[in-house]
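re the bet — no i am not wrong, look at it urself. input seq straight from the record:
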Amino acid sequence: MHHVIRAAEIHYVSAYPEHSAGFKRHSAIDRSVGSTHTGLGLCSLEAGGRIDTHVQSFEEYFYVTEGEPTLILDGRGCPLVPGACGVIPVGTPHAWLGSQTGTAKWIDMLTPIPRGPGEPEDIFFLGSPQAYESGPLDIRDPRSRHLFRMTDDDITLDKLKVGSRIDAPTVSASMSTALLAYSGIAVKMLVDQRLSAALGTMFMVEYQPGGAAHFHDHPLEEAYYILQGEVEAHADGQIYVLKEGDVLWTGVGSIHAFFNRTNTTVRWLETQSPQPPARHSYRFNRDWEYLKQKLTGAKSQA
């Protein structure tokens, strides 16, 4: 099972109207498309707008794409900029404030999917944001345990081949700065257990021209939001050319693949829910076709 949403089909609608001002959200992936773990949304908050303080029984992941919203997390305000991301843990009081000027936008992923009408409540509003301490996001500060920020250099392999100065304004060299590169693909982890996420992951993916991920499936759900470029995506025997602003979701067991047929890079934000198991999170068709051929002598179809 999979689902595709084109950029032109995205329409923001008022969300939490009794507990927010200037906030709109498009629910891209939810129960209506067959998802059980992934609630992917596109969020928009007007200048001077707000989402009241609330707690919820699901994790919320976010990645800021535009503007400078302020996240008030557990009583502390943090002005964010594009590339900022993080996780709001289950049961943690939080609120959002709009930018001083211009609209702020971000992508969110809620897991497990919030309950629907007729089910027990799973989000509780506590009123307008009260007085709070505020300070810029400092990813070098060990207390920034739920927040991170990605820059373009973080996914550029050549920039990571040499060490940073001791006073460089980035996190100290560790898995926080690691980049996974293979088969023309670069993967930069944004939100995982490192930031105390327990139920899912969020990461950035970039394919070089010719980059490919061959046919495979997972014991989990994935969602992909295209940020730049275009990619040929295969899902359950169907082929799509995904471009900026498009969304793809693949359910458990959905066989999919990606091929960059262009001469430029393609980049997307990807989520997984639940978190991948320690082993066997990927099942590649070609590997099992190879085993079939090895065991039976049958011709491989991969």
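see?? The chain has a mean pLDDT of 93. told u. also Residues 149-296 form a domain with the Jelly Rolls fold (CATH 2.60.120.10). so pay up
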